[in-house]
Amino acid sequence: MSDAGALDPLEIAEAWHAEGRAVAIATVIQTWGSAPRPAGSHLVIDGDGNFEGSVSGGCVEGAVISEAADVIATGHPRTLEFGVADETAWRVGLSCGGTIRVHLERLG
């Protein structure tokens, strides 16, 4: 987030959770090559598909948000991997190179 006083995604996740929203947190756990976000970056998603933060600068957010709906519904965490050797590379936009692993879990 670019605003100096803005909350980070984990603070937003806590606020949304306190409001009673179902929330999933996506965390970059590993990157290789040209991945635009470092390990430890977060994307938070609520049950309505609202989101804050970034795990890839726009390359895989759509796929992560889609998977978050199932993680929120089932409570089962999962790890997602995207990269140029993966069949989803062109669909999710990592055609520039690199790989990214993202862990997705429900808050609470």
TrEMBL record:
Top-rank lineage group of the source organism: Bacteria
A Pfam family it matches: XdhC_CoxI
Domain (XdhC- CoxI): residue spans on this chain: 16-83
Signal sequence extent: none
InterPro entries attached to this UniProt entry: MoCofactor_Util/Proc, XdhC_CoxI
Descriptive protein name: XdhC/CoxI family protein
Organism: Pseudorhizobium endolithicum
